[in-house]
Design a protein that fits this description.
Blueprint: H1 5-8, E1 23-24, H2 37-43, E2 47-56, E3 66-74, H3 77-94, E4 98-100, E5 109-113, E6 118-125, E7 128-135, H4 145-161, E8 203-206, H5 207-210, H6 217-227, E9 231-234, E10 238-241, H7 245-259, E11 263-266, E12 276-280, E13 293-298, E14 301-306, H8 310-326
Helix pairs in contact: 6-7
């Protein structure tokens, strides 16, 4: 139900979040600009869950405009509206700026802060609260108008995507399936060092939602559509389920091509000749973007496994293959 930001403006074709977690929960609160987590807790009541996504104009960080969208669900419309008012007011107090308007959305609360080149927009929609943040670190002189036009398109696209959204009743949360089609049980689990302190981040995403995990989501969308990706699990590895074996082969090639500029090929793990493995090409760069990785194919599945060194990644790739082949 959350469109890609590139659906609203195709210039925003990159996303930087290395962590696959996009869910927002009472145990994993939203990260809001100019607001601390304790302020969110102080100022809101009834926060249930949410989703976050991000996009940038440029591949390199901080050299172009960036957009972050957070969709926060509360127990009812009143709590969402109260959260909008209180969060917007506290944010304006923490980082003063100019009150501005978003064309077509007179009910939105928007603030432009020239000192940081931040544009922050809040909009309650029934039990949901939409928060859109933009920053423009390079344009001189700083101007709000072009950012407001982008936010207008993003909001319109987000609300259009939510038209078919029906909130799950709160008393049904406990009955929602955790492991759709058993895909998570065939995915390498997180080890102790990878787990969050309060909850397990392992998740199964519909194919459309999983696009938000990709570094080039608009490019990945074409590959997903071609391969017929319907489910993606993410835990100690990431597993993509394609329509068939041929689709999985094409998907693996596309995923590798998207990141080829930052990788150099290396040998596959012993006993796994079908795997394709890569090391970070430039060790001086942040390896979170291009970590050492193996792509492990099996039937209609492609697993993406990362590790800190050759021994670790070989062991994880072998274990992941066994989960797919013998589960």
């Amino acid at each position: 139900m959350t469109p890609l930001i590139s659906d609203a403006d195709d210039r925003f074709s990159f996303q930087r979040f290395a962590n696959a977690e996009r869910r927002l929960l009472p145990d994993s609160l939203p990260s809001l600009f100019s607001l601390k987590a304790e302020e969110f807790t102080e100022l809101t009541q009834g926060f249930v869950t949410g989703w976050t996504t991000n996009a940038e104009r440029r591949k390199q960080l901080f050299v172009g405009r960036q957009v972050t969208v957070q969709i926060l669900r509360f127990r009812d419309a009143g709590e969402a509206e109260t959260a909008e008012l209180r969060l917007a007011e506290r944010q304006a107090r923490n980082l003063p700026g100019e009150t501005v308007s978003v064309a077509g959305f007179p009910q939105a609360r928007a603030k432009w802060s020239p000192s940081q080149k931040y544009l922050d927009v809040w909009l309650a929609d029934e039990s949901l609260l939409l928060y859109v943040h933009m920053d423009d670190p390079v344009s001189e002189p700083p101007e709000a108008a072009p950012l407001l036009d982008i936010v207008r398109k993003v909001l319109a696209n987000q609300l259009n995507g939510l038209e078919s959204y029906t909130p799950t009743p709160l008393d049904e949360f406990g009955s929602l399936p955790i492991d759709v089609d058993g895909l998570l049980s065939r995915t390498l689990p997180l080890d102790a060092s990878e787990k969050a302190t309060s909850y397990d981040q392992s998740t199964v995403f519909p194919g459309r939602a999983a696009l938000h995990l990709e570094s080039r989501p608009a490019v990945a969308e074409a590959a997903f559509d071609d391969a017929g990706v319907d489910l993606v699990s993410d835990s100690g590895a990431r597993v993509y389920r394609a329509r068939d074996r041929a689709g999985a082969v094409r998907l693996m090639a596309a995923l590798i091509e998207q990141r080829s500029s930052g990788w150099q090929a290396r040998d596959a793990p012993p006993g796994l000749p079908t795997a394709e493995c890569f090391d970070t090409k430039d060790k001086k760069l942040n390896s979170s973007t291009y970590p050492p990785v193996c792509f492990v194919p099996y039937d209609r599945f492609i697993a993406l496994v990362t590790g800190g060194n050759t021994q670790e990644i070989n062991q994880k790739a072998a274990a992941q293959y066994k989960l797919l082949a013998f589960a």
